[in-house]
Records
---
Amino acid sequence: MKLMVFFLCTVMLTLPLLAHDNTFPTFPQVYDDAQIWTTDLEKLEVTNLKVYQDYISFDAPQFSHDQNIPISEVEVIRVPHGNFAVEGFFLGGLSGLVLPLAATIDNSDNNSSLYITTTLLGAGLGLIIGLASPDYKTIFHTGSFFTATAPMQSFNKDVCKVMPILNIQIKI
C-alpha cells in the first residue's frame, strides 16, 4: 500500500513537469487581429500583427501603410481567444432557474414546466450574449511575454536547472 501511494505521488508530481513546454519559437509571431495599448495609453485595433523580439509590425485603418514600433513603446498586446458562450449558457440557465424560484417561493404550486421553460430560455439568451462577447488573451504586458511561445529577452535557462521547483520528502 505504501508503495502504491509513493508511486501515485511520484506520478502526480512529475506529470506537470513533463508537460511544461520549454521550446523557444522563432520570430515573428503572426496574429490576424489584435488590440495594442502603447505607453502613452493609445488603443489601436490592428490587423496582421507580427511580433518580433524588439519591435512589432501591423496594419491599422488609421494609417495608410504598415507601422513598425519598438516593443519598448508597447504597454499591452491582446489577441482574440474564443468567446464567453459556455459561461453565458450556464449563467443564463442559472438565472432562468433562480428567478422563477424566487418569484414563486411563497406559492405552493409546483409548476415544473415553468422552471424548465425559463431555464432553457435563460440558457439560450446567455448563450447568444456569450457568443457575441469575444474573449481576449494578453500575450505581452510591459516588457513580459505571457505565453510559453515567446521568450522574455532576459530569460536565463540555467535558473531552472539550479533552483528546485518542489522539495518533498516521503518517508515510508
Note: The two ends are 10 Å apart (CA to CA).
---
Amino acid sequence: MKEAVPLLVKHLPQYEESKTKETYVLSFGVEYLFSGGHNNAPRESIANEGTYNYIKFKNFIDKTVGPDELYNLLNNNNLTDQGKMDKLDIWNQVYLEELNKKVSSLLPKEGELENQTMDKNNKESNVSESTNPNR
C-alpha cells in the first residue's frame, strides 16, 4: 500500500521547540537514558499518537472515499496546495463527525444513567428488606 506522507511527522513540533539541532538530539538522548529506552520516552509516545491518528484517518479515507485516494490527492499535480488542503479539510470534517457519532453512541442517553442508578438502589433496597431478620 502506498504511503502519502512520512509517519514520523509528529516529531516536527518537538524539533521546532528546540533552539538548535544539537539541543533537540541531546534532549532525546537524555530522555531515552532516563526513561529506559526509545519506546519508553514520553515524547516518543506523543509522536506515536500522531502516527496512530494518521493511520486511522487514512483507513477512514480508504473506506469512505476510496483506496489510495489520500495518496492520489497529495500527489495530484493538477491541484494547488490550497486546493489539496481544502479537500483534506472536508475529509477531516467528515472523519471528525463520524468519530463524534461513535463516541456519542457509547454515552448514556439523557436520564438513562439516573434511571439505572435508581433501579439499582431500588433492587438493593428490596434485597436488604427481604434479608432483614427483623421482618
Note: Residues 60 and 95 are 7 Å apart (CA to CA).
